[in-house]
Amino acid sequence: MSQKPAAGRISFRMETALRSNSPGTTLLAKYQHSKIRPRRAVKVAVSPSASAPVTLAPRYEVPRDINPLLSPYTLGEFELSHRVVLAPLTRCRAIGTVPQKNAAEYYAQRTSKGGLLISEATCVAVTGHGYPNTPGVYTEEQINAWKPVTQAVRDAGGIFFLQLWHCGRSSHPEYQPNGADPISASAVAISKGTVTTPSGDAYPFPVPRALEISEIPGVVKSYADGARNSLAAGFHGVEIHGANGYLIDQFLKSNANKRTDKYGGSIPNRCRFALEVAAAVADAVGPELTGIRLSPYSEFQEATDPETLDLNLYLVDKLSEMGLLYVHAVEARISGGFEVEGSSESLDPLRKAFKGCFMVAGGYTRETGIHAIESGHADLVAYGREFISNPDLPLRFARPDAPLNPYNRDTFYTPDQVVGYLDYPFLKDVSPEAAQLAA
Ligand SMILES: Cc1cc2nc3c(=O)[nH]c(=O)nc-3n(C[C@H](O)[C@H](O)[C@H](O)COP(=O)(O)O)c2cc1C
């Protein structure tokens, strides 16, 4: 089911650059040992290549109590009809940082009545971008463009959380105002892989600029503003992206955070930025509408820490005290969007330490998801790659033998507004019998 990279650990960045249709393929080879090229102005992203008409998704309810994954769950004020969550998935289709019309149909296709969806990572500030065509939630235009998307999910009966994102050092001057260096906890660059610029070129990661202590409150505030804007755009709540080596993870993990002030060094100091963001967001929209994603064991984008278990136990304890709605933890076997060999650390200590809802993600199948709920490992299970290719995934999980469409990595991150986005078939189209029996 899940595809593995050909050899060992391979990064999402690397994978993006190695796509055969990516201009980064040649540039990667050309520039991998060179210095960063001279700065240029940010270019407007490429246009979508397809504008085929799109059929509206069939609205459906997932049959209840067929198995533990499809049993109801009360998430704070939300009555979920099942436990199969749409994981946050960057799709690189938000041209010029603005969600496009077809995003409404993309999310509606993946909505079931009472189902929980988490949006693609969405930047809280202009300095937060690090991938082409990723959306923001910090301008009027972006907020207005999200409204039909959230309305489509609401119309289909879904609960929709926006993932609040800042890439930090995982960016390039081409994304930054006035070609400035990206910001981070410390001036430590990601040493391997490449960053793809808005124009589609691939470069080595630049050395970021360490945030001045006086600047940190402004960055914290941008997450709170993003949370407020998300609710104004019609989202039900927000998930803070504290995972996968982005800005918050750059403060948490000691190999990216070399600070000697109150934001670096000890575990409480390295957790300070994450906790300030969580407190500011919770203050802005309420802790009962705030979740957070963490990837304690992921080494994605070189964010690692020998003390990660102790650090995360400290962190979730404080998040419990704040009354955050959920912790969404990525399993050790996952690095970004890939499974990796040899990582088997358990999330159970964090599950026990956190008082609210515990969601897990990473490499789950129908069967392992059922086991995760049955065994008490988690309350909710988020699915990424399989949900991209199976818009009605929860419905398919009603039957052990319902076929799953394979996903196509080549179309994960293209700007095409239809291909790999809206064109994966529904169960009723590939197996009317299974759809009939499931419903
Ligand atoms: C195409 C793609 C985009 C992703 N984008 C995000 C993202 O925006 N935010 C995030 O936290 N994780 C992101 N991830 C990681 C997924 O949320 C998920 O943790 C990972 O795919 C493992 O789950 P899976 O085995 O069910 O696919 C992405 C993964 C893929 C494959």
TrEMBL record:
What cofactors does the UniProt entry give for this protein? FMN
Source domain of life? Eukaryota
Keyword Flavoprotein in annotation? yes
Give start and end of each NADH:flavin oxidoreductase/NADH oxidase N-terminal domain. 69-397
UniProt keyword terms in alphabetical order: Flavoprotein, FMN
> Is the keyword DNA repair in the record?
no
**One Pfam family from the UniProt entry?**
Oxidored_FMN
Checking PANTHER family in the record gives: NADH OXIDOREDUCTASE-RELATED, NADPH DEHYDROGENASE 2-RELATED
Q: Which family does it belong to?
A: Belongs to the NADH:flavin oxidoreductase/NADH oxidase family.
Instruction: Kindly provide the name given to this protein in its UniProt entry.
Output: NADH:flavin oxidoreductase/NADH oxidase N-terminal domain-containing protein
Specify the species: Coccomyxa subellipsoidea
